[in-house]
Design brief:
The complex is a heterodimer of chains A (about 60) and B (about 425). Chain A has about 60 residues and is mainly alpha-helical. Helix content of chain A is about 65%, strand content about 5%. Chain A has two helices and one strand. In chain B, the strands form three sheets. Chain B has a five-stranded mixed barrel. In chain B, strands 7-6-8-9-10 form a five-stranded parallel sheet. Classes of the chains: A mainly alpha (about 60), B alpha/beta (about 425). Chains A and B meet through helix 1, helix 2 and strand 1 of A and helix 5, strand 7, helix 6 and helix 11 of B.
Amino acid sequence: MKKSYEELISELKDIVRKIEDNETGLDESIALYEQGAVILKQCEDLLASAELKITMLGRD
Amino acid sequence: MAWYQDKIREEKREHGIEIFSVSEISSLISSVLDDPRLQEIWLRGEVTNFRPHASGHRYFSLSDRKENAGSVIQCIMWRSEAQRLAFDLKDGTDVLALGSIGHYPPQGKYQFYVRELRHAGEGEKHLLVEQWKAMLSAEGHFLPERKKPLPGYPQRVGVVTSETGAVLQDIRNVISRRFPLELVVSPTAVQGEEAYREIVRALGRIDGRVDVIIIGRGGGSFEDLFPFNHPDVVRAISGCTTPVVSAIGHETDFTLADFAADVRAPTPSAAAELVVKDRSLLTEALAGIQKTMGGSLIRKLDRASHDIGLLRERLSPVRTGRLLVLRRQDVSVLADRLERAFSGRLARERLSLESLEARLTGRNPLAVLGRGYCLVEREGTVVRSVREVSAGEKLDVRIADGRIDVVVKGVFHEKEL
């Protein structure tokens, strides 16, 4: 199941918060950064790939 | 004549009849006219006897249409309310007037005080809308707690409008500029007698298939927008599981559909802007997040490498050697201080010793011997009385520079001399 932009952004914000937290160790921070970079890419792809599509529903 | 009236009054009083003053009855009339059946009522009639007044107030009468004319009610509309009139008042106009009957004691007449005036044809539809509004409000369709929040990042946006109208073009333009995505159009007629049925069906077809619905119609007359006041449309909007944004007519037009929608937008373009975020802003926000994330990691790495540097520094042989030299220096400094402190003390002790010696010498009993005195002792004990001594005893005599052993030849007490 593909995640929505909303979910991705919320995950990304979580990751940033954890990296900023001084309690988070360096190892974990690096792992989080890698994870964050992947999500960031997914977000950018979502934005870049957006294109207008028009569907017309038929009348009854 | 006066005597006659007085007589009548007297007679009436005798018969128990009460006599009123004009102002008493006038105020009674005022209170009778306060009857709720005469307050805030809609009155339909034809304008007659219209007299514009320099003051700006409007004076006119309302009477029934010709066939059953016969009753007339005088009306007044204050300037403040008359200014809002959307049409020119003319004799013969069929109008609907909202107002209250009131009494004007100085002229002894009652009047209809008009607050609002409409053309009768349109007025009836307005009235209907008022009735619908009260009914639908009682059904709970306009309650704020029913309003659903709009999705932050919709993927599919539904549009209920005419497939040929400008509304769809406007929405399409805004969305393709801000954040292109899938538009699902559920076409419907947006005006005419039967339009409300189509609108309800169009909503039913699209509800649940998109993330948010825009229901829109371009500007038009009250008449044109009328289908969007229909109770069936209002109920369909409030019954949608998908959030609905309304954009019906111009900013100043309100329909009941607007009250039922989760969000009301002033125009279709504004509705589209409400529904989708601007992609370029989102891209900027992403760049911001990336910067923040990278920044915090780099700070963390910097801190870690700084910590490592400190540790390495503390462990290095050079530093250990340097530390040794430092410690050695500390020891020699301490030894110096110890020595200085000690020698100083010694000198002080010596001084005080000498002064003690001097003081001691002053008190030395033997010091007097220097002046020619002597001391007699027997076996180390000073002899203080002749009674302690007998002839033939051996005694020591101490003088300044030595001792003389003597033998006692005789003992004489001073008193005996």
